[in-house]
Amino acid sequence: MVIEDLRARLSGSLQGLARIALRSLWVPTRSEYLGISVEATMDPAHLLNAMLGPGTGEVPAELPELKAQQFSELWPIDPAAQRFLWGFVRSVRPQRFFETGVADGASTRIVLDALERNGDGRLWSVDVLPTAGDLARRSPAVHRWQFVVLPARHRAAALRRTIRPLRPLDVFLHDSDRSYSWQAFEYREAWSALAPGGWLLSDDIDASYAFLDFARGHRLRPWVLVGPRKLFGALRKPA
Protein backbone atom coordinates (compact mmCIF):
# COMPACT_ATOMS: atom_id res chain seq x y z
CA MET A 1 0.00 0.00 0.00
CA VAL A 2 2.89 2.39 0.65
CA ILE A 3 4.19 1.89 -2.90
CA GLU A 4 0.69 2.35 -4.34
CA ASP A 5 0.23 5.61 -2.39
CA LEU A 6 3.58 6.93 -3.62
CA ARG A 7 2.68 6.05 -7.20
CA ALA A 8 -0.68 7.80 -6.92
CA ARG A 9 0.83 10.95 -5.44
CA LEU A 10 3.65 11.14 -7.96
CA SER A 11 1.53 10.53 -11.04
CA GLY A 12 -1.20 12.78 -9.69
CA SER A 13 1.21 15.70 -9.46
CA LEU A 14 2.03 15.53 -13.18
CA GLN A 15 -0.08 16.61 -16.11
CA GLY A 16 -0.57 15.65 -19.74
CA LEU A 17 2.06 13.64 -21.56
CA ALA A 18 4.34 13.41 -18.54
CA ARG A 19 1.59 11.79 -16.50
CA ILE A 20 0.74 9.34 -19.29
CA ALA A 21 4.40 8.41 -19.70
CA LEU A 22 4.77 7.72 -16.00
CA ARG A 23 1.53 5.77 -15.76
CA SER A 24 2.67 3.70 -18.74
CA LEU A 25 5.68 2.47 -16.81
CA TRP A 26 3.61 0.80 -14.10
CA VAL A 27 0.79 -1.71 -14.00
CA PRO A 28 -1.80 -1.91 -11.20
CA THR A 29 -1.70 -4.61 -8.58
CA ARG A 30 -4.66 -6.89 -8.05
CA SER A 31 -5.08 -5.48 -4.56
CA GLU A 32 -5.80 -2.06 -6.07
CA TYR A 33 -8.73 -3.52 -7.98
CA LEU A 34 -9.95 -5.44 -4.96
CA GLY A 35 -9.99 -2.16 -3.08
CA ILE A 36 -12.08 -0.23 -5.62
CA SER A 37 -14.39 -2.89 -7.09
CA VAL A 38 -18.04 -3.47 -6.30
CA GLU A 39 -17.34 -7.17 -6.65
CA ALA A 40 -14.21 -9.12 -7.58
CA THR A 41 -14.56 -12.85 -8.08
CA MET A 42 -13.31 -15.82 -10.10
CA ASP A 43 -16.90 -17.04 -10.61
CA PRO A 44 -18.61 -15.60 -13.73
CA ALA A 45 -22.09 -16.55 -12.54
CA HIS A 46 -21.53 -14.82 -9.22
CA LEU A 47 -20.30 -11.71 -11.01
CA LEU A 48 -23.34 -11.62 -13.29
CA ASN A 49 -25.64 -11.91 -10.30
CA ALA A 50 -23.81 -9.03 -8.62
CA MET A 51 -24.09 -6.90 -11.76
CA LEU A 52 -27.59 -7.70 -12.92
CA GLY A 53 -29.40 -9.22 -9.96
CA PRO A 54 -29.89 -12.68 -8.43
CA GLY A 55 -30.68 -15.54 -10.78
CA THR A 56 -29.59 -13.58 -13.83
CA GLY A 57 -28.80 -15.22 -17.10
CA GLU A 58 -27.34 -18.53 -18.05
CA VAL A 59 -23.66 -19.23 -17.55
CA PRO A 60 -22.69 -22.58 -19.08
CA ALA A 61 -20.47 -24.91 -17.12
CA GLU A 62 -18.20 -24.88 -20.14
CA LEU A 63 -18.19 -23.73 -23.75
CA PRO A 64 -16.93 -25.58 -26.83
CA GLU A 65 -13.16 -25.19 -26.96
CA LEU A 66 -12.11 -22.41 -29.31
CA LYS A 67 -8.41 -22.84 -29.95
CA ALA A 68 -6.23 -20.14 -31.42
CA GLN A 69 -5.30 -21.04 -34.97
CA GLN A 70 -3.22 -18.13 -36.22
CA PHE A 71 -2.46 -15.83 -33.32
CA SER A 72 -0.99 -16.31 -29.86
CA GLU A 73 -2.92 -18.56 -27.48
CA LEU A 74 -2.38 -15.88 -24.82
CA TRP A 75 -4.52 -13.34 -26.68
CA PRO A 76 -8.06 -14.73 -26.17
CA ILE A 77 -10.00 -13.91 -23.03
CA ASP A 78 -9.78 -16.51 -20.27
CA PRO A 79 -12.31 -19.41 -20.29
CA ALA A 80 -14.16 -17.94 -17.29
CA ALA A 81 -14.42 -14.60 -19.10
CA GLN A 82 -15.77 -16.41 -22.16
CA ARG A 83 -18.48 -17.98 -20.03
CA PHE A 84 -19.21 -14.60 -18.46
CA LEU A 85 -19.49 -13.01 -21.91
CA TRP A 86 -21.98 -15.63 -23.06
CA GLY A 87 -24.13 -15.17 -19.95
CA PHE A 88 -23.86 -11.38 -20.18
CA VAL A 89 -25.09 -11.24 -23.78
CA ARG A 90 -27.90 -13.69 -23.05
CA SER A 91 -28.99 -11.60 -20.05
CA VAL A 92 -28.56 -8.03 -21.33
CA ARG A 93 -29.76 -8.85 -24.87
CA PRO A 94 -27.89 -5.97 -26.52
CA GLN A 95 -28.95 -4.64 -29.89
CA ARG A 96 -25.65 -2.91 -30.72
CA PHE A 97 -22.46 -4.52 -29.49
CA PHE A 98 -19.09 -3.06 -30.49
CA GLU A 99 -15.77 -4.88 -30.02
CA THR A 100 -12.17 -3.83 -30.57
CA GLY A 101 -9.56 -6.53 -31.11
CA VAL A 102 -10.52 -9.77 -32.83
CA ALA A 103 -7.41 -11.92 -33.40
CA ASP A 104 -8.69 -15.48 -33.99
CA GLY A 105 -12.18 -14.38 -32.98
CA ALA A 106 -12.90 -16.44 -29.85
CA SER A 107 -14.79 -13.72 -28.00
CA THR A 108 -16.33 -12.58 -31.29
CA ARG A 109 -17.69 -16.07 -31.89
CA ILE A 110 -19.13 -16.27 -28.37
CA VAL A 111 -20.92 -12.93 -28.73
CA LEU A 112 -22.30 -13.87 -32.14
CA ASP A 113 -23.56 -17.26 -30.97
CA ALA A 114 -25.21 -15.68 -27.91
CA LEU A 115 -26.87 -13.02 -30.08
CA GLU A 116 -28.16 -15.77 -32.35
CA ARG A 117 -29.59 -17.61 -29.34
CA ASN A 118 -31.28 -14.34 -28.35
CA GLY A 119 -32.68 -14.05 -31.87
CA ASP A 120 -31.69 -10.40 -32.11
CA GLY A 121 -28.77 -7.97 -32.05
CA ARG A 122 -25.69 -7.19 -34.13
CA LEU A 123 -21.94 -7.12 -33.51
CA TRP A 124 -19.39 -4.74 -35.02
CA SER A 125 -15.72 -5.66 -34.60
CA VAL A 126 -12.53 -3.84 -35.53
CA ASP A 127 -8.97 -5.04 -35.88
CA VAL A 128 -5.85 -3.88 -37.70
CA LEU A 129 -5.35 -7.25 -39.41
CA PRO A 130 -7.64 -8.34 -42.27
CA THR A 131 -6.88 -12.00 -41.52
CA ALA A 132 -8.39 -11.78 -38.02
CA GLY A 133 -11.66 -13.47 -37.10
CA ASP A 134 -11.36 -17.00 -38.49
CA LEU A 135 -13.35 -18.53 -35.60
CA ALA A 136 -16.07 -15.90 -35.98
CA ARG A 137 -16.45 -16.62 -39.70
CA ARG A 138 -17.40 -20.20 -38.84
CA SER A 139 -20.32 -19.07 -36.67
CA PRO A 140 -23.85 -19.75 -37.95
CA ALA A 141 -24.56 -16.21 -36.77
CA VAL A 142 -21.99 -14.60 -39.07
CA HIS A 143 -24.87 -12.69 -40.71
CA ARG A 144 -25.07 -10.65 -37.49
CA TRP A 145 -21.44 -9.53 -37.81
CA GLN A 146 -19.70 -6.65 -39.48
CA PHE A 147 -15.90 -6.65 -39.46
CA VAL A 148 -13.94 -3.45 -40.09
CA VAL A 149 -10.18 -3.33 -40.66
CA LEU A 150 -8.57 -0.22 -39.20
CA PRO A 151 -5.59 1.30 -41.02
CA ALA A 152 -2.22 1.27 -39.31
CA ARG A 153 -2.02 5.05 -39.71
CA HIS A 154 -4.70 7.36 -38.34
CA ARG A 155 -6.19 4.44 -36.44
CA ALA A 156 -7.88 6.63 -33.82
CA ALA A 157 -9.68 8.72 -36.43
CA ALA A 158 -10.79 5.56 -38.25
CA LEU A 159 -12.17 4.10 -35.04
CA ARG A 160 -14.16 7.28 -34.40
CA ARG A 161 -15.57 7.21 -37.93
CA THR A 162 -16.61 3.59 -37.51
CA ILE A 163 -18.39 4.18 -34.22
CA ARG A 164 -20.11 7.46 -35.11
CA PRO A 165 -23.06 6.09 -37.16
CA LEU A 166 -23.66 3.29 -34.64
CA ARG A 167 -24.40 5.50 -31.64
CA PRO A 168 -25.84 4.84 -29.17
CA LEU A 169 -24.15 1.53 -28.37
CA ASP A 170 -25.45 -0.90 -25.78
CA VAL A 171 -22.09 -2.58 -25.11
CA PHE A 172 -18.47 -1.72 -25.90
CA LEU A 173 -15.81 -4.40 -25.39
CA HIS A 174 -12.14 -3.41 -25.39
CA ASP A 175 -9.71 -6.23 -26.23
CA SER A 176 -7.05 -4.60 -28.39
CA ASP A 177 -3.89 -2.53 -27.80
CA ARG A 178 -3.04 -2.73 -24.09
CA SER A 179 -0.95 0.44 -23.84
CA TYR A 180 -2.10 3.08 -21.36
CA SER A 181 -2.66 5.77 -24.01
CA TRP A 182 -4.71 3.54 -26.33
CA GLN A 183 -6.79 1.96 -23.58
CA ALA A 184 -7.54 5.41 -22.16
CA PHE A 185 -8.53 6.63 -25.64
CA GLU A 186 -10.85 3.68 -26.24
CA TYR A 187 -12.53 4.04 -22.86
CA ARG A 188 -13.25 7.72 -23.51
CA GLU A 189 -14.63 7.01 -26.98
CA ALA A 190 -16.70 4.12 -25.67
CA TRP A 191 -18.21 6.19 -22.88
CA SER A 192 -19.32 8.95 -25.21
CA ALA A 193 -20.82 6.41 -27.64
CA LEU A 194 -22.67 4.32 -25.06
CA ALA A 195 -26.36 4.83 -24.37
CA PRO A 196 -27.34 5.70 -20.80
CA GLY A 197 -27.30 2.40 -18.93
CA GLY A 198 -24.87 0.93 -21.48
CA TRP A 199 -21.91 -1.23 -20.55
CA LEU A 200 -18.16 -0.80 -20.96
CA LEU A 201 -16.40 -4.17 -20.80
CA SER A 202 -12.66 -4.61 -20.96
CA ASP A 203 -10.20 -7.44 -20.99
CA ASP A 204 -6.64 -6.85 -19.72
CA ILE A 205 -7.61 -4.16 -17.23
CA ASP A 206 -4.46 -4.95 -15.28
CA ALA A 207 -2.23 -4.31 -18.32
CA SER A 208 -2.14 -0.59 -17.52
CA TYR A 209 -3.67 1.93 -15.14
CA ALA A 210 -6.07 3.21 -17.80
CA PHE A 211 -9.19 1.35 -16.63
CA LEU A 212 -8.55 2.11 -12.97
CA ASP A 213 -7.93 5.79 -13.72
CA PHE A 214 -11.04 5.96 -15.89
CA ALA A 215 -13.24 4.42 -13.20
CA ARG A 216 -11.88 6.74 -10.53
CA GLY A 217 -12.24 9.75 -12.82
CA HIS A 218 -15.95 8.99 -13.23
CA ARG A 219 -16.37 8.03 -9.57
CA LEU A 220 -17.46 4.55 -10.52
CA ARG A 221 -16.66 1.20 -8.98
CA PRO A 222 -16.05 -1.64 -11.45
CA TRP A 223 -17.04 -5.26 -11.36
CA VAL A 224 -13.98 -7.46 -11.83
CA LEU A 225 -13.61 -11.05 -13.00
CA VAL A 226 -10.34 -12.43 -11.66
CA GLY A 227 -8.65 -14.85 -14.05
CA PRO A 228 -5.47 -16.89 -13.74
CA ARG A 229 -3.63 -14.68 -16.25
CA LYS A 230 -5.44 -11.34 -16.23
CA LEU A 231 -8.41 -9.31 -15.03
CA PHE A 232 -11.64 -8.56 -16.91
CA GLY A 233 -13.65 -5.50 -15.89
CA ALA A 234 -17.09 -3.96 -16.36
CA LEU A 235 -18.51 -0.48 -15.83
CA ARG A 236 -22.06 0.69 -16.37
CA LYS A 237 -22.84 4.17 -17.66
CA PRO A 238 -25.36 5.87 -15.39
CA ALA A 239 -28.88 5.93 -16.82
- Please give the number of β-strands: 8
> What structural class should be given to the helix and strand makeup?
alpha/beta
CATH superfamily: Vaccinia Virus protein VP39
Question: What's the CATH class, please?
Answer: Alpha Beta
Give the strand content. 15-25%
The largest sheet is: 8 strands, mixed
Shape: globular
Mean pLDDT: 88
Detail the poorly predicted runs.
10-14
CATH topology: Rossmann fold
Q: What's the SSE pattern? A: HHHEHHEHEHEHEHEHEE
Using the CA coordinates, give the radius of gyration: 17 Å
Q: Specify the number of helices.
A: 10
* Domain module count: 1
Instruction: Give the N-terminus to C-terminus distance in angstroms.
Output: 34 Å
Widest sheet: strand ordering: 1-7-8-6-5-2-3-4
Question: Could you list some keywords that capture this structure?
Answer:
single chain; 239 residues; alpha/beta; Rossmann fold; 18% strand
Question: In words, what does this structure look like?
Answer:
- There is one protein chain.
- This protein is of the alpha/beta class.
- It has one domain: Vaccinia Virus protein VP39 (Rossmann fold, 3-Layer(aba) Sandwich).
- Helix content is 41%, strand content 18%.
- It has an eight-stranded mixed sheet with strand order 1-7-8-6-5-2-3-4, with helices on both faces.
- α4 runs parallel beside α5 and α9 crosses α10 (210-217).
- The two termini are 34 Å apart.
- Mean pLDDT is 88; it is low at 10-14.
